[in-house]
C-alpha cells in the first residue's frame, strides 16, 4: 500500500513539468501581441460598446451631466480609431464625426442630412433638455449602426506599413487643423483631451511597426518621446480657450511629423500615393513644397510647368483676349495689390458696377471650386468664364488665337509650353493662364517662416492672435490651417461654402440681396452661400466680403465677433456660421488683426 502511494506521488511529480509547460505555452499564446488590424477591429468593437452604453443611458436617464459624460466616453473611443476610419473609410466617417450640416450633392440637387457625434453634441450641449430625447436616441442608434458598418469594412481590407505611415501623417494634420481648433467639438470644446487620445493611438501604432536596426530604433524612440511630451502638454493644459497652439504645433506636432518622414526613409517604406494633395515627403505641412498644385487640375495634360506659367504670365497682361482690346486679366487683378483691384466691386466694360468684389488670385490654385459662387471647378474653366463674360472681358479665345499665331514671341512660348503640339489651341490658352495663377503661391510669409523654423521673429501679440484664430475666435474652423481657405484638410478633396449673413451695407440692417451659390443650384441650404476665401495676403486685399462691404480687418472681426448676420439682428434662416457672440476683448481683436497681417507674402510686404 505504501509502495503504491509513493509510486503515485512520483508519477504526479513527473507530470508537473509537463503540466507547467502546457500552462506556460497557453499563457504565452494568450499574450501574443495583436496585429494592427486585429487591435483596430477590437477598438472598433469597444467604440461600439461605448456607444451602446451611451444609448442605454440616453434611453433611461434625463440627467444632463450623465448623458454628456457618456457622450464624451463614446467619442473618446472613436478618437482612438479615428486615424483608420478617416483614412480607410472617409465616406461613412463623414456621418460619424462630420459637421452637423447637410451633405449636399448639388449636381443631383439632393442632400443627405447630417448624423453622428456633432449632431448629438448639438442635442445635449450646452445643457440637455429631455425634449431632445427622441432625436438623441435615434441619432445614437444611427451612430451604432455606422460603427458596425465600419467594423465590416476594416475587417475586409489589407493594411500595409505604407498605409500606416500615410494614415499617421494625415492624423497629425487632422489634429492640427480640425482637432485642436475645435472643428469637430464646436460646442463641448473637448478638443484637447480628444487630441490626447488621438496622439496615444499613434504611439501604439508606431510600436507595432517591426523594423530592427539601430537607426530605426533610435528614430522610433524619438517619435515616442515626442508623442509622450505632446500628450503631457495637453494633459497639463486641457483648457480649449487658453491652449497655446503656436507652441504645441512648433514644439511637438512638427517634430513628430519630421521624425515620421525620417523613420519612413530609414526603413524604405514606400509612399502609397493615396493622397495626392500633400507631398508625402514634406517634413511638415508648413514646408514650401507641402502642397501639390497638380492635385487640382482637370486631367494629366494640364500638368503645371514653368514654361506654361511663363506663357500664362504674358497672356495675363494681353489685351487681345478682350472684345475691345482694352482689358486684360491684370486690369482687375493687380499684382501690386496681391492680384485684387482695391475696389468695392469692379466695373463692367460699359462702366457699370459689377455685383461682386474681385478676389485675390494668390493661392487660388488650392481650391476645388472657383468664383465666389463656386460655379467653376478649376482654373481652366475660370479663365474661360471671365474671358467670355460679356460684362468682364467679352472676349473670344479663338479670335485671339488667329492673331497670336502670327506673333513670333507667342510662337516660341507656345512651342516651349506645349512641345508636342503643332498648333495653338483654345485649351492651351486656358491651361497657360491657369498655370500662371498656379505659380502665385510662395509660402514665404512671416507666419510660414516662423512655423517651419526658418525664423523666430514672431511677437507675443502675433502668437496670441494665432492662438485666438485657431481657438476662441474659431476662425480656423472655416479658414483651415495652413492654407487658410475653405479646402478641408487633411485630404483637401472638398472646398466649402458658408452662409454668414453678410449685410448689404455698413448699417447692417438688411441682408445682401446676392443669393450666391443658390443662383446656380437653387437649394435652400445654398441661399446666400459663398465660397470660403483664402486669408493669405488678406491685409493687402481690402475691401472684404463678396460685396466689399467692409473696408478694414477690424470691421470684419467685429462682424464675426457679433455672430454674423444673425448677431446683427438680420434674419438668416440657414446661417451656417454660429450666431453666438465670440466675446473677444479689444486687445484680442487687435491681436487677431495683427496675426492676419503675418500671412502677407514677402513680395507684398513693405
From TrEMBL:
Q: Where in the cell is it found?
A: Cell envelope
What would be one Pfam family of this protein?
CCP_MauG
Q: Where is the Cytochrome c domain?
A: 307-441, 460-600
Offer a single GO CC term for the protein: cell envelope
- What's an example of a GO molecular-function annotation for this chain? cytochrome-c peroxidase activity
Keywords in alphabetical order, please: Heme, Iron, Metal-binding, Oxidoreductase, Peroxidase, Signal
User: What superkingdom does the record give?
Assistant: Bacteria
Checking InterPro entries in the record gives:
Cyt_c-like_dom (IPR009056), Cyt_c-like_dom_sf (IPR036909), Cytochrome_c_Peroxidase/MauG (IPR051395), Di-haem_cyt_c_peroxidsae (IPR004852), Imelysin_sf (IPR038352)
Quote the protein name from its UniProt record. Cytochrome-c peroxidase
Which species expresses this protein natively?
Answer: Flavobacterium agrisoli
Amino acid at each position: 500500500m505504501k509502495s503504491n502511494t509513493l509510486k503515485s506521488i512520483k508519477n504526479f511529480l513527473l507530470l508537473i513539468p509537463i503540466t507547467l509547460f502546457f500552462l506556460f505555452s497557453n499563457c504565452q499564446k494568450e499574450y501574443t501581441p495583436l496585429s494592427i488590424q486585429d487591435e483596430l477591429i477590437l477598438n472598433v468593437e469597444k467604440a461600439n460598446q461605448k456607444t451602446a452604453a451611451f444609448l442605454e443611458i440616453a434611453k433611461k436617464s434625463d440627467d444632463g451631466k450623465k448623458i454628456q459624460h457618456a457622450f464624451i466616453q463614446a467619442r473618446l473611443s472613436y478618437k482612438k480609431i479615428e486615424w483608420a476610419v478617416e483614412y480607410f473609410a472617409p465616406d461613412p466617417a463623414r456621418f460619424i464625426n462630420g459637421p452637423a450640416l447637410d451633405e449636399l450633392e448639388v449636381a443631383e440637387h439632393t442632400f443627405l442630412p447630417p448624423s453622428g457625434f456633432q449632431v448629438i453634441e448639438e442635442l445635449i450641449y450646452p445643457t440637455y433638455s429631455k425634449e431632445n430625447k427622441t432625436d438623441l436616441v435615434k441619432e445614437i442608434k444611427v451612430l451604432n449602426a455606422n460603427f458596425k458598418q465600419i467594423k465590416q469594412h476594416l475587417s475586409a481590407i489589407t493594411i500595409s506599413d505604407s498605409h500606416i505611415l500615410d494614415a499617421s501623417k494625415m492624423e497629425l494634420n487632422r489634429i492640427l487643423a480640425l482637432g485642436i481648433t475645435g472643428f469637430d467639438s464646436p460646442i463641448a470644446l473637448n478638443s484637447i483631451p480628444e487630441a490626447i487620445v488621438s496622439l496615444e493611438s499613434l504611439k501604439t501604432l508606431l510600436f507595432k511597426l517591426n523594423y530592427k536596426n539601430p537607426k530605426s530604433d533610435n528614430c522610433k524612440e524619438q517619435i515616442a518621446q515626442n508623442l509622450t511630451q505632446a500628450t503631457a502638454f495637453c494633459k497639463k493644459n486641457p483648457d480649449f480657450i487658453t491652449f497655446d497652439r503656436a507652441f504645441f504645433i512648433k514644439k511637438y506636432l512638427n517634430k513628430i511629423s519630421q521624425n515620421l518622414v525620417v523613420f519612413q526613409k530609414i526603413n524604405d517604406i514606400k509612399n502609397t500615393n493615396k493622397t495626392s494633395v500633400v507631398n508625402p515627403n514634406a517634413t511638415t505641412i508648413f514646408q514650401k513644397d507641402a502642397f501639390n498644385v497638380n492635385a487640382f487640375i482637370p486631367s494629366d495634360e494640364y500638368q503645371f510647368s514653368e514654361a506654361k506659367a511663363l506663357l500664362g504670365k504674358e497672356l495675363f497682361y494681353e489685351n487681345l483676349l478682350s472684345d475691345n482690346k482694352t482689358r486684360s486679366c491684370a486690369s482687375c487683378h493687380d499684382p501690386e495689390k496681391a492680384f485684387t483691384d482695391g475696389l468695392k466691386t469692379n466695373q463692367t466694360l460699359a462702366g457699370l458696377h459689377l455685383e461682386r468684389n474681385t478676389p485675390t488670385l494668390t493661392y487660388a490654385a488650392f481650391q476645388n471650386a472657383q468664383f465666389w459662387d463656386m460655379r467653376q471647378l478649376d482654373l481652366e474653366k475660370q479663365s474661360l468664364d471671365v474671358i467670355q463674360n460679356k460684362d468682364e472681358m467679352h472676349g473670344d479665345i479663338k479670335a485671339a488665337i488667329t492673331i497670336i499665331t502670327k506673333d513670333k514671341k507667342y510662337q516660341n512660348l507656345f512651342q516651349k509650353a506645349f512641345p508636342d503640339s503643332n498648333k495653338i489651341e483654345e485649351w492651351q490658352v486656358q491651361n497657360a493662364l491657369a498655370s500662371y495663377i498656379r505659380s502665385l503661391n510662395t509660402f514665404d510669409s512671416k507666419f510660414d517662416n516662423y512655423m517651419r523654423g526658418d525664423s523666430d521673429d514672431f511677437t507675443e501679440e502675433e502668437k496670441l492672435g494665432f492662438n485666438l484664430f485657431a481657438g476662441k475666435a474659431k476662425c480656423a474652423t472655416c479658414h483651415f490651417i495652413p492654407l487658410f481657405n475653405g479646402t478641408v484638410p487633411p485630404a483637401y478633396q472638398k472646398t466649402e461654402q458658408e452662409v454668414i449673413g453678410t449685410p448689404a451695407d455698413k448699417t447692417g440692417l438688411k441682408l445682401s440681396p446676392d443669393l450666391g451659390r443658390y443662383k446656380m443650384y437653387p437649394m435652400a441650404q445654398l441661399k446666400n452661400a459663398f465660397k470660403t476665401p483664402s486669408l493669405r495676403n488678406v491685409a493687402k486685399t481690402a475691401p472684404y466680403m463678396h460685396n466689399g462691404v467692409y473696408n478694414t480687418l477690424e470691421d470684419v472681426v467685429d462682424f464675426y465677433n457679433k455672430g454674423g448676420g444673425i448677431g446683427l439682428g438680420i434674419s438668416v434662416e440657414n446661417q451656417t456660421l454660429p450666431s453666438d457672440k465670440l466675446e473677444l476683448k479689444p486687445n484680442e481683436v487687435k491681436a487677431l488683426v495683427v496675426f492676419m497681417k503675418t500671412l502677407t507674402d514677402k513680395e507684398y510686404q513693405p
